[in-house]
Amino acid sequence: MKNVQRLSTLARPLAAAMAMAGLAALGLAGCDTATANTAAAAPAAPPITAATVIVRQVTETQEFSGRLEAVERVDIRARVGGFITSVNFKPGSVVKKGDVLFEIDSRPFQAEASRAEAAANSAAARAGLAKLELDRSERLLADKAIAQREYDEKASSVKELDANVRAAQASLQAARLNLAYTRVTSPIGGRVSKAEVTTGNLVDGAVILTSVVSNNPIYATFDGDEATYLRVGRDAQRGAPVTVKVGLANESGFPHEGKLEFVDNRLDTSTGSVRMRATFDNADNTLVPGLFARVQLGGTEGGKATAVLISERAVGTDQNRKFVYVIGDGNKAEYRPVVLGPVIDGLRVVRDGVKAGEKIVVNGLQRVQPGAPVNAQLVAMDSGQPKGDMKVAAASGREKE
C-alpha cells in the first residue's frame, strides 16, 4: 500500500509536466498557423503595364469650336420698281457672276430710254445749228457787219446748248441704266438661296428677292484664348503663315487645311477671347457657310518646341485634378498630379508633373494604390505594345529581362 501511494505521488508532477509540454506544443503550432495565414493573406503586386515618359520636338496645336462663314454674301434686291416677269434660277443652285436671276417688266423703261434718246438727239441738233451760226457770226464780225453784242449772244447760246446736250445725254444714260436694271443679275459667284418673290409680284428696292453666298474660298471663324493670341497673334499680324485645320461634325480628325487670315486687334475683356479667322480652299463645296467646325490651330512654320509626352491612357481623374502613377523605388506606385497640354499625334503634352525618363503606369490604373508595389511590364509609350518580357527595375531604375 505504501508503494502504491509513493507511485501516485510521483505520477502527479510527471502528469503536470506533460500537460505543460502539450500546451507549449499547441501554442507553437498556433503561432505557425497564424504566420502561415498572414502570409497567405498578403496581396500580390497587381500586374500592370508601364511606359517611359518621352520628349520630342513638336509643333503645339490647340483646338476650338468655330463656324464656317462665306467670304461674300449678298442680298439681292431690285434697283428699279416693277412687276417680276420671270425667275431664272433653281433654288440652291450654283450661279456665276452676272447670271440673270430675275427679270422685271422692261416696257416702261424701254419707252423712257427711247424718249431720252430722242431728247438727246434734239439737243444735239440745236447745238449743231448754234455752232454754225456762231461760225458765220465770226466772219461777219471780222467784216464789221454785225455788232459785238450780237456775236456774244450767239457764243453764249452755243455754250448753253452744249450744256443741254450733256444733260440730255445724262438722262439717256440714266434711262438705259434703269432699263438694264430690269435684269437682276448676281454680283458674285456662289450658291443662291430660294426666290423670296415669285413671278407677277410688284417689287421695289426695299424687297429682298433672294441671297447669294460665295463658296470658294470660305472662312472658319473662332474665338481663341489669351494664350493662343500670345503664341500666334503677332506672327499672324506680321504675315507669317500659321496653319489651321478644320473638321466637320461627320468627319474624324481635321482633314481640311488652311491659313490663319485674321486676328482681331484686341482681346475681349468680358470673355477673355480674341476673334480669329482662317481661310480654306473649298473647290469641292464640302464646306458650307453656317456649319459647325472643329478648329485645330497650329503654329508658325518651323515653330517647333520641346515637349514631354505621355499616353492618354496613363492619365487619371481625381475630382478636378489630373494625375498619373509614377513607378518609383521598390516598384512602388507614386501618385503624381500633372498639368496637361494639348494632344499631339495621339500623345498628351504634360506641362508639369513628370520628367523625361520616368516610368508611369499606362494600363491598369484601377488596380494601383498609392505607395503599393506593382508588377510592371514595360511597353512603348506611343504604341502600347509590350517590349518582350522587360520589367521595371527596382531602386536602381535599370531594366532587366
UniProtKB/TrEMBL annotation:
Chief place where the protein resides: other
GO biological process, one term: response to antibiotic
Keyword Signal included in the entry's annotation: yes
Classification via Pfam families: Beta-barrel_RND, BSH_RND, HH_MFP_RND, RND-MFP_C
Residue span, Multidrug resistance protein MdtA-like alpha-helical hairpin domain: 115-182
Any one cellular-component term (Gene Ontology): plasma membrane
Gene3D superfamilies (alphabetical): 2.40.30.170, 2.40.420.20, 2.40.50.100, Helix hairpin bin (1.10.287.470)
Full protein name: Efflux RND transporter periplasmic adaptor subunit
Protein keywords: Signal
